[in-house]
Design a protein that fits this description.
The structure holds 2 protein chains of 2 kinds. Chain A has 7 helices and 10 strands. By secondary structure, chain A is α+β, with helices and mostly antiparallel strands. Chain A has a 5-stranded antiparallel beta sheet with strand order 1-2-3-5-4, with helices on one face. In chain A, helix 3 (100-119) packs parallel to helix 5 and helix 4 (154-171) crosses helix 6. Chain A is globular. By secondary structure, chain B is α/β, with parallel strands linked by helices. Chain B has 2 domains: 4-142 and 317-354, Nucleotidyltransferase, domain 5 (2-Layer Sandwich); 151-315, 2-Layer Sandwich (Nucleotidyltransferase, domain 5), CATH 3.30.420.40. Chain B is built from 11 helices and 14 strands. In chain B, strand 1 and strand 2 (36-45) form a beta hairpin. In chain B, helix 4 (135-147) crosses helix 11 (322-334), helix 7 (233-245) runs antiparallel to helix 8 and helix 8 (249-278) packs parallel to helix 9. The radius of gyration of chain B is 21 Å and the shape is globular. In chain B, 54% of the residues are buried. Classes of the chains: A alpha+beta, B alpha/beta. The A-B interface holds A 11-14, 35-39, 41-42, 45, 125-128, 130, 147, 159, 162-163, 166, 170, 206, 209-214, 216-217 and B 105-106, 161, 163, 168, 173-175, 177-180, 218, 220, 225-229, 261-262, 264-265, 268-269, 272-273, 275-277, 297-299, 301-302, 305-306, 348-351.
Chain lengths: 227, 363
């Protein structure tokens, strides 16, 4: 299958990533590994399900204009996906050296792509800076669709936005405003104003759901008072 | 308890003293955030650190779960006894104590108020500094102390909390947490609703674990991981629905087994992702649910895959206790963190990531 040999690129939490040449194309092999801590029956279902979802969603989104690597081959029973190799860096690693305007541009592109997903009823499930690549051709790719799925529930979309916001906050607190402003600008290209407003409300709801958030308590108290 | 971590921690403290005499320091800590009323006393004396005493009394409901009012009444009854026991066992008089540390939150309001009232009284009557302590941070710091850890990935699971944290820029940052109920709450509520509990834990084994031994089949239950966050409420509802239809002990056993497997796998999965992202080589499990052997085994094997070492905390220090409040109070006190008794309000909601931890490294 692989004609260029396999070179291990990285070991993620869920899968091992190898680089290879597949049918003459530089490719990445993502192999989901069995976990000793999982019940064996469960492990099987798990690997199968996630591999299948990931490949399906990636292919679907690509056809809609989201920059996801193209899927070249899958074997769900083995937990294996072969996909196009994108030469670049993860945004979690290469955002710090950039001027703020460049960060805003990248965020805008992520926002644009996220809205294409959401408008077409797909959520990513783990949309963080670590799952966005900036290619050396300066294109933003979204990767790692293992937790994604189809849903018409705004809640799922809000969680995507919340996760992204939190990962920016964690890694680059000083860039958070520039990034999220850019994100929403890009998001509004494909999504209607009413949808964006609804989503923003939901994002706030999701954020307040974290444990022991004072704002949540205050909100309830003031509601009780005026309703 | 003189070891490398303690000494280096103390060196850190000494390098940044805020007019506090560190050659001899005795801190009394009071814990009353939930079902436990605890008093611990810790001492530093010429570079040697000791936990002098860790006394507590735990409220066990006769039926149902923890009723905040009943628990706080229990604390009112028990507090003087526990305090006396701690002082006499340690051979320390209140007048000899350097400062009083109190867990002001997060927790159940009525319970918090019992501890806070006592601590405020002791601090004003004996003119001692009062130190506000965040309960979650105390859990983490005692685990680090006892295991000699510098920078672990922290997994804190109890009846009230489920979170994964790392230290960064002088604070603990939450990298993943539950969006609704906690892991302990999930297991306890399930056990209670299907009639297995109380008591929730018998001979160190949780009722859900005992019940899981009756079953063998794996049943598909909702698995809800959102990025690095968890949601257990849908899992609870689905498991209860299935349990109500169960016709045999074996069937119920399979539901218990699947519930436990699903819930623990969710937690291990997000822990694993956090471990890989944060690139830590130590994993610390703490909190009341840390005693669970199955969870220990799973996390241990996960840590092993990534070449990280797994640590847990002895039961007396993993569950709620006063010693952890005293130790964390000592750390705060050495960095000049005190509160006036009249301003020491309890905070039912007090997030771990809101609290400065000045003893942590800069990056």
């Amino acid at each position: 299958m692989a004609s260029g040999g396999l070179a291990e690129l990285s070991q993620g939490a869920e899968a091992k990533i190898y680089k290879t040449i597949f049918l003459g194309i530089p490719a990445v092999v993502k192999l989901r590994i069995s976990k000793p801590y999982r019940h064996p029956d469960y492990d099987r279902v798990f690997k199968h399900r996630r591999t299948l979802t990931e490949a399906k969603v990636m292919t679907y989104l690509r056809s809609l204009g989201v920059r996801a690597p193209s899927v070249l081959y899958i074997d769900p029973d083995a937990g294996l996906i072969v996909m196009e190799y994108v030469d670049g860096c993860r945004l979690s690693e290469c955002l710090s050296e950039m001027p703020e305007e460049r960060v805003a541009e990248i965020a805008l592109d992520i926002g644009r792509q996220a809205s294409i997903m959401h408008v077409n009823s797909v959520y990513h499930g783990d949309l963080t800076l670590a799952n966005a690549l900036l290619s050396f051709k300066n294109e933003v790719y979204i990767i790692d669709f293992g937790l994604s799925g189809y849903s018409r529930d705004v809640e799922e979309y809000a969680i995507d936005v919340h996760l992204l916001d939190r990962s920016v906050e964690l890694l680059y607190p000083e860039l958070r405003n520039a990034f999220m402003d850019g994100f929403w600008k890009g998001y509004s290209i494909n999504a209607s104003t009413s949808f964006v407003e609804k989503l923003k409300d939901k994002v706030r709801d999701v954020r307040l759901r974290g444990r022991y958030i004072e704002e949540r308590l205050r909100r309830r108290v003031s509601k009780d008072r005026y309703v | 308890m003189e070891n490398a971590a303690t000494l280096s921690l103390l060196e850190n403290i000494v390098s940044s003293t805020h007019g506090v005499d560190l050659s001899k320091l005795t801190v009394l800590g009071i814990e009353s955030t939930s079902h436990t009323f605890g008093v611990g006393i810790v001492r530093v004396s010429s570079g040697v650190f000791e936990i002098l005493v860790n006394e507590f009394s735990r409220y066990v409901p006769e039926k149902g779960g923890i009723h905040p009012r009943d628990a706080s009444n229990y604390h009112v009854e028990e507090a003087p006894k526990v305090l006396h026991r701690a002082l006499s066992k340690a051979g320390v008089k209140l007048s000899e104590v350097s400062a009083i540390a109190i867990a002001l939150g997060p927790g159940l309001g009525p319970c918090l108020r019992v501890g806070a009232t006592i601590a405020r009284f002791l601090a004003s009557y004996y003119s001692k500094p009062l130190i506000p302590v965040n309960h979650a941070m105390a859990h983490i710091e005692i685990g680090k102390l006892l295991n000699n850890l510098k920078d672990p990935l922290v997994i804190y699971v109890s009846g009230g909390n489920t979170l994964i944290a790392i230290q960064r820029k002088k604070r603990y940052r939450i990298v993943g947490e539950t969006l609704d109920i906690s892991l302990g709450n999930l297991l306890d509520t399930f056990a209670r609703e299907v009639g297995l509990a109380p008591p929730y834990v018998v001979n160190g084994v949780h009722q859900v674990d005992a019940c899981a031994n009756w079953g063998e089949d794996f049943i598909d239950l909702p698995y809800t991981v959102k990025g690095n966050d968890l949601s257990f409420s849908g899992l609870l509802t689905a498991a209860l629905k299935k349990a109500r239809k169960a016709k045999s002990r074996k069937e119920l056993g399979s539901i218990c087994l699947s519930l436990r497997e699903t819930a623990f796998n969710m937690l291990v999965e997000v822990s694993e992702r956090a471990l890989v992202l944060a690139e830590k080589n130590e994993v610390l499990l703490t909190g009341g649910v840390a005693a669970n052997q199955f969870l220990n085994d799973k996390l241990k094997s996960m840590a092993l895959i990534h070449g990280a070492k797994f640590y847990t905390v002895p039961a007396d220090y993993a569950g709620d206790n006063g010693a952890m409040i005293a130790w964390n109070g000592l750390l705060h006190y050495a960095h000049g963190v005190v509160v006036k008794p009249e301003e020491a309000f309890v905070r039912q909601r007090w997030r771990l990531d809101e609290v400065d931890a000045p003893w942590l490294p800069e990056d």
